[in-house]
Design brief:
Elements: H1 14-24, H2 40-49, H3 53-60, H4 70-103, E1 109-110, H5 114-121, E2 132-135, H6 141-150, E3 154-155, H7 166-169, E4 172-177, E5 182-187, H8 200-205, E6 208-210, E7 217-219, H9 222-235, H10 241-250, H11 257-266, H12 270-284, H13 293-296, H14 299-312, H15 325-338, H16 341-350, H17 356-361, H18 372-390
Parallel strand pairs: 2-5
Antiparallel strand pairs: 1-2, 3-4, 4-5, 6-7
Length: 391
């Protein structure tokens, strides 16, 4: 089935193509032609940017007569070792939080971190993770906040809200422990609005138990995890290939593709599932089976997959402010293209809802915040006029 997939990869650097060859190699035999005229410093930058250095290191260590310079291998090893210690630390924190939340009657699902590395790669050292992502019911946010504060975590108050729009404009709060150097994201949704998704209770019913720690902790079922990885990766433009390698790994599992088709269809994201499978097949040689075709069929998935190549032709970091104007404009457009017609309509309606910038422009008492609805067009125009005058 893979022969029908043909994306334009002309402008992807040879260094990134070599990384892809190493990652997808099964017999550790890579043609020597791939090593010709490689900028090894760029190779290292890309390995770090795409968070694939642990996997690359474990692959090249198995290769006989590797043509990778020793200083690159040694640098990769240092990062690999550092990541392994980091993942072990996160395992301990994961077990502590699982036990603490359970004792306080808070159901939680771990989304990523060591639990994902163990499930997809069978080895926590082969995948990176900078933090722990935890999903809980929105009703338990206050209780979870109190528990984390007692543990020494500090909440990052970067979310500014008006009329409780945080509940749907955002999907997680961030906490940081200054002594342990640990970051935790507490999610009440998998993705921000206007995405549609399963409820926490539905995900909890289909949960799995991990054996990575001595105390029982839980994460999502295979199909729900695939749905989350797809929607999360798409929302970030697959700008880090680690997310796409996750897709390649989970597809190797015995997934129920009929159930997945209906899951994607129910939450209006079938073409996003198709996008992920096309990208994985094209870049990582993921085998496309007949059961996957209903998710892939149609031109929209292929078009969305081709749009992602823009991110891979550049080292796009959407988490580092300020994002270059060209990248920000492209990403905004791409995010809009991922939405269904209904989601686009809801998104456009949400623009009419007051933003925190309206409060900053004109401060009103909280009991009069409802006035921001009729005032929003005028406040928006004032900001635009003011910005133009200053420029």
């Amino acid at each position: 089935m893979n022969k029908h997939i043909d994306l334009n990869l002309t402008n992807i650097s040879k260094e990134l193509k070599l990384i892809l060859e190493i990652v997808k190699s099964e017999n550790d035999d890579i043609s020597k032609d791939w090593y010709v005229d490689i900028d090894w410093d760029l190779f290292l930058q890309l390995a770090l940017h795409h968070r694939l250095y642990p996997l690359i290191y474990t692959k090249i260590m198995k290769m006989e007569g590797s043509r990778i310079p020793s200083y690159i291998s040694q640098t990769l090893y240092k990062y690999y070792q550092k990541n392994t210690f980091r993942m072990l630390h996160l395992c301990g924190e994961m077990e502590k939080l699982g036990k603490l939340f359970n004792e306080n009657e808070i159901l939680l699902l771990f989304l990523k971190g060591p639990i994902l590395a163990d499930d997809l790669y069978g080895d926590i050292s082969k995948r990176t993770s900078g933090d722990l992502d935890i999903l809980i019911s929105i009703e338990n946010l206050d209780k979870a906040n109190a528990l984390l504060i007692d543990l020494g975590y500090e909440k990052d108050e970067y979310i500014h809200s008006v009329l409780n729009d945080w509940k749907w404009r955002h999907h997680h709060f961030t906490y940081y422990h200054p002594i342990q150097d640990t970051k935790i994201e507490i999610h009440w949704r998998l993705n921000p609005a206007p995405s549609k998704e399963p409820t926490f209770n539905e995900l909890w019913v289909r949960k799995r138990k991990s054996l990575i720690t001595s105390y029982p902790i839980y994460f999502m079922g295979n199909e729900d995890l695939f749905y989350f990885l797809v929607t999360h990766g798409a929302r970030h433009g697959w700008s880090r290939l680690r997310w796409l390698v996750d897709i390649h790994q989970i597809v190797k599992k015995d997934l129920n593709w009929n159930a997945l088709y209906h899951l994607f269809k129910k939450y209006q994201s079938r073409y996003i599932g198709g996008q992920s499978l096309i990208l994985s097949a094209q870049l990582l040689n993921t085998t496309i089976t007949t059961d996957m075709i209903p998710i892939i069929k149609g031109n929209r998935s292929k078009s969305l997959a081709q749009d992602v190549i823009f991110y891979l032709e550049r080292m796009v970091n959407l988490h580092m402010e300020p994002v270059p104007v060209e990248i920000a404009k492209y990403h905004t457009k791409h995010l809009f293209s991922l939405m269904s017609s209904q989601q686009k309509f809801i998104y456009l309606l949400s623009v009419l809802h007051p933003y925190h910038t309206d409060v900053e422009t004109l401060s009103l008492p909280k009991k009069l915040h409802f006035l921001y609805f009729p005032l929003r067009p005028f406040l928006w125009m004032w900001r635009k006029t003011r910005k133009h005058a200053l420029s």
